[in-house]
Specification:
Strand content: under 5%
Number of strands: 0
Largest sheet: none
Length: about 180
């Protein structure tokens, strides 16, 4: 099967089931980011990869990330607009001021809960990681989002972001599990 055929099948499913497709792709790419973090960053052998950890990370993408991004991008499109440089810049500003800080906090809290951490340990993780992750976010995402919002049609924006986010997810997986690695 050629790449073009695969893309046509993807477009067909995306049109029919946009939330499901975007949940699956986000969950898959978040899980892949965690797996890459464990194998290539944390230098675990493939047989020592914590698949439960990967499943946790993936489930955040499937159940929250993909659907939330789909709704968020639709919201931005409906209330800010869909075309033009000024529209793209406004979307980036709103995205980085509202969605990014909120969703990053959600990820930290959700991972802590899924790891079975006590509330005070989750708060410590947030205090030690949140601002650093948010600052790194501001180095990476505004530039990507400008391109995404200006050049990419709405239905493909989550795919583009999640493809780039494979690297971001690798960073997040490493960053949010760093304290676990030293214990």
């Amino acid at each position: 099967m050629k790449g073009r055929n695969i893309f046509q099948i993807y477009q067909k499913f995306l049109t029919r089931r946009p939330y499901l497709v975007q949940a699956i792709q986000t969950g898959t790419l978040m899980g892949a980011g965690d797996y890459i973090s464990q194998v290539f960053v944390e230098k675990k052998s493939m047989k020592n990869v914590d698949l439960i950890r990967t499943l946790r990370f993936s489930s955040i993408g499937f159940f929250a990330g993909g659907p939330a991004l789909r709704v968020w991008y639709g919201f931005l499109n409906n209330y800010i607009g869909s075309k033009g440089k000024t529209v793209a810049l406004k979307k980036v500003l709103v995205d980085q001021v509202i969605f990014a800080p909120t969703f990053l906090l959600f990820i930290l809290v959700t991972l802590g809960v899924m790891q079975g951490k006590a509330l005070e340990n989750i708060e410590k993780d947030i205090q030690s990681n949140y601002l650093d992750i948010l600052k790194t976010n501001y180095y990476v995402w505004p530039f990507i989002q400008i391109v995404n919002f200006y050049y990419i049609p709405l239905q493909y924006q989550v795919l583009i972001v999640q493809t780039v986010a494979l690297f971001w997810n690798t960073y997040l997986a490493w960053k949010t599990n760093r304290n676990e690695l030293t214990q």
